[in-house]
Amino acid sequence: MTLAQGLDRTDPRHTARLTIACADRKGIVAAVSQFLHHHGANIIHSDQHSTDPQGGQFFMRMEFHLDGLDLAKEQFERAFAQQVAEPFDMNWRVWYTAQPKRMGIMVSNYDHCFLDLLVRKRRGELDVEIPLVISNHATLCGDAEMFGVPFAQVSVTKDNKAEAEQEQARLFREAGVDFVVLARYMQILSGEMLRGLAVPVINIHHSFLPAFIGANPYRAAFQRGVKLVGATAHYVTEELDAGPIIEQDVARVNHRETPETLMRLGRDVERQVLARAVKAHLEDRVLVSGNKTVVF
Amino acid sequence: MTLAQGLDRTDPRHTARLTIACADRKGIVAAVSQFLHHHGANIIHSDQHSTDPQGGQFFMRMEFHLDGLDLAKEQFERAFAQQVAEPFDMNWRVWYTAQPKRMGIMVSNYDHCFLDLLVRKRRGELDVEIPLVISNHATLCGDAEMFGVPFAQVSVTKDNKAEAEQEQARLFREAGVDFVVLARYMQILSGEMLRGLAVPVINIHHSFLPAFIGANPYRAAFQRGVKLVGATAHYVTEELDAGPIIEQDVARVNHRETPETLMRLGRDVERQVLARAVKAHLEDRVLVSGNKTVVF
Amino acid sequence: MTLAQGLDRTDPRHTARLTIACADRKGIVAAVSQFLHHHGANIIHSDQHSTDPQGGQFFMRMEFHLDGLDLAKEQFERAFAQQVAEPFDMNWRVWYTAQPKRMGIMVSNYDHCFLDLLVRKRRGELDVEIPLVISNHATLCGDAEMFGVPFAQVSVTKDNKAEAEQEQARLFREAGVDFVVLARYMQILSGEMLRGLAVPVINIHHSFLPAFIGANPYRAAFQRGVKLVGATAHYVTEELDAGPIIEQDVARVNHRETPETLMRLGRDVERQVLARAVKAHLEDRVLVSGNKTVVF
Amino acid sequence: MTLAQGLDRTDPRHTARLTIACADRKGIVAAVSQFLHHHGANIIHSDQHSTDPQGGQFFMRMEFHLDGLDLAKEQFERAFAQQVAEPFDMNWRVWYTAQPKRMGIMVSNYDHCFLDLLVRKRRGELDVEIPLVISNHATLCGDAEMFGVPFAQVSVTKDNKAEAEQEQARLFREAGVDFVVLARYMQILSGEMLRGLAVPVINIHHSFLPAFIGANPYRAAFQRGVKLVGATAHYVTEELDAGPIIEQDVARVNHRETPETLMRLGRDVERQVLARAVKAHLEDRVLVSGNKTVVF
Question: Which ipTM was obtained for this model?
Fold first, then answer.
């Protein structure tokens, strides 16, 4: 009996990742590792983090080979739920690398993050499927075609926003996406849209020290003479740009920059940071803890 | 005839630095370089920047050896003023490396920036004299003594702040400081104090992406789960932490940090950034352009 | 009268860049800036560097608008040669932004540097024309097509190397390239090939602290447990990987890496470093000084 | 009954760190975590790494509170040895934070790494005792005094090297040091000295891309025009500068540098890298794996 239909668990490339979040208390690591050991799982990587051993939250990620496992997928998960997860009141999930995650992408006109994701996927750097790209413009349709990725245009205006979002959410649900990446999508997703999608959404935005708010932050950063431009990738919540941060980075700039060169340098940081955030998400390294992340 | 009393201009270590800011127009570089060439100055380094060749601001820094100069210091400066600076309406100054700048320091209880400056000065990394340190506490008096630096304590309370600031400004004026560094001085300088000092003041403060405001920014940064902590060195203006930025940098942090480790990592960035800003200021590399800096 | 056929010198986007290298002596900056000023050139940027004011080398880059110039291109260059360059025995050149440089590219099978250059060119980040890509394999032919770039395959074997190089050099000469970029081209260019090309050649290679030599440096770096992987972009000389360095950078790695993840992280550094080197070269910011570079 | 004489295990600041290295096989994590759980240890942090789940090496670091422990120190360690360590043939050790490690320091004339360690220790950033500093010169004796650290001068000449090393090893043994840091100690330790010390020795040295060997690497780096200077901290083995790397970093440099400014910038990297390596060692985060390190 195989672990899942079409999944050969003796294939050495196939591993599973168990992620756990729960209230911290004694004995969690012992219970989990003993369960895995008992059922023949060969642990490759294991990470734990406790925000506070007294009354804090506990986070764990375990990656293990499937080839020694004595249970099929469904049995394994049911047994874990009963014997370990329920007693410790765990928020948990098992992901199988044999089933790559399905990533929806939303874009507008900027191509830098979008092309970076497509190229990395093609090169095998990101183990992911991309069943659908949705844009409010036609600009990047040709690029999607070049890389063989389905592209849908859903125009968004002031008047049709609610309707457009319903359509977008419907298309992503039909495409069966596991998460959505806003690769410089220049529209704010409503709370309704986020609930309609019902999957994690990752966004990338520019960041400065200090922060600049408003329509043209690169111009504001230019006028303030910043020496660094940065980018932040985060999970989207209803509060704009205030969701759990996954990854950040900066690049040095100097007095010679114009708003245009700041934007160009910013784009390079944006795509690097987004790619690292997406990779961490794909590898189940990011666990959300309130409004923060644990990135194993 | 010597360039200045006690200044031997044939000493190869002695150079002068001419800094210029003015409205941009054609012919500035030609006029300055011809003047220096005509009087035998041997240019070592030259930097120019124009914010916009049409109607922008022009900035220049020229460093030159004194040993070929055919004029004494006073004559040289008078001739430059008449022949070059006035026709172009320049804001200009000449600094002589034979006369190291005099740096006043203000500190409270944190020692990391303070000790870093003292050690770098002793090691010869900063070509500077430190005629006076003023603190509102006695904590760092022993450290000042260890490094042979005069230390004055001027307590500041809610009631005596205006008076205390007058005393501080008076002490710095008497000590003949060319600029003041706030090496984690935990009081805000009033506009009156800044005018009383009448010299540039450099401050260092922590910086985050996004920015956190209020009494305990490291705790706010911890609660938001930032992946970078940073520091910004800037010239002090009356508007708190909004003066021209000289230097910035960041350090990576992760989910394991506590507010305490964030502070510790932040301290390392703070002292590095402050040291670089002070060094750039000492070498006359920082020209202020409105609320921005040009750092050559 | 126009500066050159088809070149409208009143177009504000059109500037010229004058690069100069010569033995340092007094009066160079004055002579150059006076010449430009006299002929109505409006200087936008100016950089100088002297390796040693006594007996060293002097390097200069001046960028200026053409719209005030009182001479046509040929007259301007002839006058500069006679009045300035010859008296100072200068190695010099003027480049006009209206005539973008023509970049030849050599690739083998890795796509990361190649695609990065194509995407940046398309996005307008690199002001360059790409008249020809030559590969010893057919692998990247489709990518070249996607981006509308001419592609020629010239197979190289142990037996035909000299002949193949002659063919490659001939193709590049016919395509009129101003410089060639080895975007992970896995063959060593012979001295004869370099002389046959007669244009600058830029290479990118991985770099480690310490250095690892031989067939599989990422494996060697893995076995040594390095904490950084890096990349170096340099001009190619006959001595392998020992030409003047243009740009370098590193990325942090940890004990979890495999030789494969080291390579992947290394690729990201490689393409960033190569893109920065190519951009600096395109903007005439890189002046070669013996076996070093001055990068303005 | 207390865990150890003078050690109050109910003190929340007191934790223990268990480090383990052994051949990887199934069940290790389960065995260790169950043992700790059974004896009431409250795990705060736990890190594992396997070089290869089939036939590789396994590394583990567990930090736990002592206040729930049902055994005294000696009993606890004896039980662990019998029940867990021996069956799995583990190389293991328990460290108690209540007993800070004792660090010996060796210096010559450079003060930057030395002062950095002393200042960080005083500030509480490094939880360490410094029972002895040994130098082959008297230069830094005053600094040791300033910070209240015992200082011994042992001159080393070509003729007395073996004898001097014996004396140094004897002094360190008498001082009871747990490890030794070469804070820019300009002598090579012989294999005999390393065996005589019988504790880990950490060294810091400059690093470049590419590597430069010989008496004056900063001059060689200057002549090659490197764009980065770096530093590597590593454990000392008999093969010079080839021991397991703990930490590395770099700083950007440009064509303006002289050999002197390269050294100054290099010093800043050296002291940062050494401080991070020492901190990681103090917190038992560094496990040696052949000629590599695992840094948790």
Answer: 0.92
